[in-house]
Specification:
This protein is an alpha/beta fold. The chain has a single domain (4-184), classed as Flavodoxin domain (Rossmann fold). It has helices spanning 17-31, 55-58, 67-76, 93-101, 103-106, 136-139, 142-157, 177-184; strands at residues 4-9, 35-40, 79-83, 107-108, 115-116, 123-130, 160-168. The strands form two sheets. The chain has a five-stranded parallel beta sheet, sandwiched between helices. A two-stranded antiparallel ribbon has the order 4-5. The protein binds flavin mononucleotide (FMN). Residues 11, 13, 16-19, 85-89, 129-132, 142 line the site of flavin mononucleotide (FMN).
Length: 187
């Protein structure tokens, strides 16, 4: 059966660092016969989470906008890649809001710990980029901050970690061969 990739871009730069990583992953997945759904968050209409928590019961947000399409694609994919740059040692607000709006898609509230609503047969892969060069990107919690923020959502959702790619430092214009090889191994 054809495998489904959901590729989510959380940067305003389509061909920036994270965009290039995501584009390359999409290219490889396509070559391998995967079906691709590509979401550019900056082209979507996604209101802020209002914190009502209705979705914890209904699995649906009370606000009807583009989150419905993303929720449907997330539930049905085999692999999701979120590509998001580091903003203040975290993810950009637009990516954080995506996770906020998917609260009830990811977890069900119980008396004790939240229960995962997605499947451990589904994998998530994370791409990030920051100006801080390695190893300071890690030592100062820059890239690790963004990865940690994204993992928080996916770990709770029940999905399985498939790997990550981190682009550090300024001045690189294109994807390195090493990064390309790393991305190719995901498919
Ligand atoms: C609002 C804002 C906040 C940023 N915060 C950080 C930061 O905390 N640490 C860092 O190393 N780089 C930071 N950067 C730089 C970006 O992470 C970097 O330019 C990244 O490569 C952009 O990725 P993109 O080309 O995929 O958009 C920030 C950039 C912006 C616009």
């Amino acid at each position: 059966m054809t495998k489904k990739l959901l590729a989510i871009l959380g940067s305003s730069h389509k061909s920036g660092a994270t965009g290039s990583m995501l584009n390359y992953a999409v290219e490889i997945a396509r070559q391998k016969g995967w079906s691709i759904d590509y979401i550019d968050l900056y082209e979507k209409n996604i209101a802020y989470c209002n914190g009502c928590r209705t979705c914890m019961k209904t699995q649906k947000c009370v606000q009807r906008d583009d989150i419905e399409e993303i929720a449907r694609l997330l539930k049905g994919c085999d692999v999701v890649i979120v590509a998001a740059p580091v903003y203040w040692a975290n993810v950009p607000a637009i990516v954080k809001n995506l996770f906020d709006r998917l609260l009830g898609v990811a977890i069900e509230e119980t008396e004790t710990f939240p229960k995962a609503r997605l499947s451990n047969k589904q994998k998530y892969i994370l791409f990030t980029a920051c100006n801080t060069p390695a190893p300071f990107s890690k030592l100062y919690g820059q890239s690790t901050g963004a990865i940690r923020g994204m993992k928080e959502f996916f770990k709770a959702s029940g999905m399985r970690f498939g790997g990550k790619c981190v682009w550090t430092g300024q001045g690189k214009k294109t994807l390195s061969k090493r990064m390309k090889r790393r991305i190719e191994k995901f498919f």
